[in-house]
Specification:
- β10 (133-139) and β11 (142-147) form a beta hairpin.
- It contains eight helices and 19 strands.
- Helices cover 25% and strands 31% of the residues.
- The protein has two domains: 5-42 and 120-190 and 296-340, FAD/NAD(P)-binding domain; 47-66 and 79-113 and 193-293, Polyamine Oxidase, Chain A, domain 2, CATH 3.90.660.
- It is α/β, with parallel strands linked by helices.
- Strands 1, 2, 9, 10, 11, 12, 18 and 19 form an eight-stranded mixed beta sheet that branches.
- It has helices at 16-27, 67-74, 116-122, 164-171, 179-190, 247-253, 258-273, 325-340; strands spanning 5-12, 32-35, 47-50, 53-56, 62-64, 81-83, 89-90, 106-110, 126-128, 133-139, 142-147, 153-161, 193-203, 214-215, 223-228, 239-245, 282-293, 303-307, 311-316.
Length: 344
């Protein structure tokens, strides 16, 4: 019989919720391993490099009212933060996260790219990237985590830290164990997330760059946001824009060829920024299928379900805290860790 590697806690998903949870648990001495199918940590706190210039192509900036989250960010080395960014906002369209501009919200960008913060949270943690979990099962008094490439794991506690729709297939087998977990799975199926088709593009530095850091078009059915990413960089070599599609338009075009919707986003941006915007030196397209929680779908807190033999399944992410966004993800991960440690 194969002997499976055993841990106290396995966290599936190395976005901000999973990192916040794992960081807190490991700090309390728990044996935690963090799994993610991506090549890097952070989820939508993602930074790509085009011609060696960093571009944030998920979250454009950080904002929060949470003292815990702010303390975590300020624990990073000095010189990387740009407080109060974006400093210049244009357009009367609706931001993805209107709370970012509430009077009590702090805003910040990172000159080196937002991925620096999740990397900071991941320092010292046991992280396994490019690891795909196919399902969960319960046997022998433990939760078994089945991996696509073999080498399955087991733990008494498993945390799911991802978008609600991504949890559903992992819970299918495990939901047969308890009525509570079956009810939780049915609840998650009712809660939707919003997609965002995104293009990041670099340009010869214009003599007259846009006057705004972030632009929210009011009358576009295509564009949600345009970010002048190069405004965050120290002595950038290139101008850089990040264009994010509206949720409805993104859903309609989610399965279309990337060339098609990339061209549409570039041409729509040119309507507002100028013809130069549709002639980038280089660009990259990104499909965010689960970009953010649909407003009003958020739950009041993380979920923790008990299984036989003192096993547990926890769930955290921006869905599991009011307001959505990165702050909700961070707070839900920390709160779940407190409950797992018996502190909440």
């Amino acid at each position: 019989m194969q002997t499976l590697a055993t841990h106290d806690t396995i966290v599936i998903g190395a976005g901000i919720a999973g990192l916040a949870c794992a960081h807190s648990l490991a700090g309390a001495g728990a044996d935690v391993v963090l799994l993610d199918r991506a090549r890097g940590v952070g989820g939508r706190c993602a930074t790509w490099r085009l011609r060696d210039q960093p571009i944030d192509h998920g979250v454009a900036f950080l904002h929060c009212a949470s003292a815990e989250m702010w303390a975590s960010i300020y624990a990073m080395p000095e010189g990387e933060r740009i407080d109060g960014w974006p400093k210049s906002v244009s357009g009367r369209g609706s931001p993805c996260q209107p709370r970012a501009f509430f009077p009590d919200a702090h805003r910040m960008a990172l000159q080196v790219g937002l991925t620096a913060w999740p990397k900071h949270l991941a320092a010292g943690l046991s992280v396994r990237l490019q690891t795909t979990v196919t399902r969960l099962s319960f046997a022998g008094g433990a939760v078994h985590v089945h991996l696509r490439d073999g080498g399955d794991l087991r733990a008494t506690t498993v945390v799911l830290a991802m978008a609600g729709p991504q949890m559903d297939p992992l819970l299918t087998d495990l939901a047969e164990v308890t009525d509570e977990l079956r009810a939780t799975q049915r609840l998650l199926r009712l809660l939707t997330s919003l997609p965002s088709l995104t293009v990041m593009a670099i340009y010869d530095r214009p003599k007259t760059p846009p006057s705004w850091d972030v632009f929210y078009p009011e009358d576009s059915t295509v564009l949600q946001t345009v970010v002048q990413d190069s405004a965050k960089r120290r002595e950038p070599r290139f101008g850089a824009l990040v264009m994010q599609g509206r949720p409805r338009w993104s859903r309609q075009n989610l399965d279309a060829p990337a060339e098609q919707w990339t061209r549409a986003l570039l041409e729509e941006t040119a309507r507002y920024a100028g013809a130069w915007a549709k002639r980038p030196l280089e660009f990259k397209a990104q499909r965010w299928q689960h970009a953010r929680v649909d407003a009003g779908n958020e739950l009041s807190g993380p979920i923790l379900v008990s299984l036989p033999r003192d096993c547990r399944i926890g769930m955290a992410g921006e869905l599991f805290s009011p307001g959505g966004g990165v702050e909700a993800a961070f707070v839900s991960g920390r709160r779940l860790a407190e409950r797992l440690l018996g502190k909440g």
